[in-house]
Amino acid sequence: MKIDKKIIKELSDYLKEFNLTEIEITEKDTKIKVSKNNVSINQPKVVSPSSPTTVSAPNQTQNIKSGTEITSPIIGTAYHAPEPGAKKFVEVGKKIKKGDTIMIVEAMKTMNHVPSTADGVVKEICVEDGQPVEFGQTIIVLE
Fold first, then answer.
1. Residue 132 buriedness (CB in 10 A; 0-12 / 13-18 / 19+)
2. I need a labelling partner for 46 at 20 to 30 A (CA). Which of 9, 30, 54, 120 fits?
3. Residue 4 predicted with pLDDT over 50
4. If residue 78 lies in a helix (H) or strand (E), which one and from where to where?
5. pTM of the entire structure?
6. DSSP type of residue 109
7. Which residues contact 133 (CB under 8 A, 6 or more apart)?
8. What does the DSSP assignment read for 5-55?
9. What is residue 62's predicted lDDT score, i.e. its pLDDT?
10. Is-contact 72 102, C-beta < 8 A?
11. Which pLDDT score is estimated for 35?
């Protein structure tokens, strides 16, 4: 499969222009996802979801997440607790079961509980409390 660098450059420019964290396009059987790498200096990275490897744009570090990724089912604002000052649903190192609420995503004044899609131990919480999230964006990684 040949990757068109021009498309990656355009998508990277859109990330900067519209202050997005990630953008994804699908054409026929090809899917290209470009997202900011929060570990380094917020440079975009390219992920091919059909393969387990990460293809990065030039001069960037590779960031390969291992574990089970739980993604946001909707666009909205992520909250770690049911209300301000309350105990968080999950913390790094906590063991959770499939179906446990891991976060709330508010969309159009509706609080949507996000259930875990797998059993495991919380390895990483990928979004800050009160941060906007996109559909399909990884919000938690389980071991």
1. middle
2. 120
3. yes
4. strand 76-79
5. 0.53
6. T
7. 72, 75, 76, 77, 78, 105, 127, 139
8. HHHHHHHHHHHHHTT-SEEEEEETTEEEEEEEETTTTSEEEEE-TTSSSEE
9. 38
10. no
11. 80
Total Cβ atoms within 10 A of residue 60: 15
- Whole-number Cα distances in Å, 26 to 18, 32, 48, 90: 19, 6, 11, 33
What's the whole-number average pLDDT of the chain? 78
Q: Which residue has the tokens 């291992």?
A: 66
Encoded tokens for 130: 């009160």
Q: How far apart are CA 85 and CA 52, in angstroms?
A: 38
Q: What is the CATH number of domain 68-142?
A: 2.40.50.100
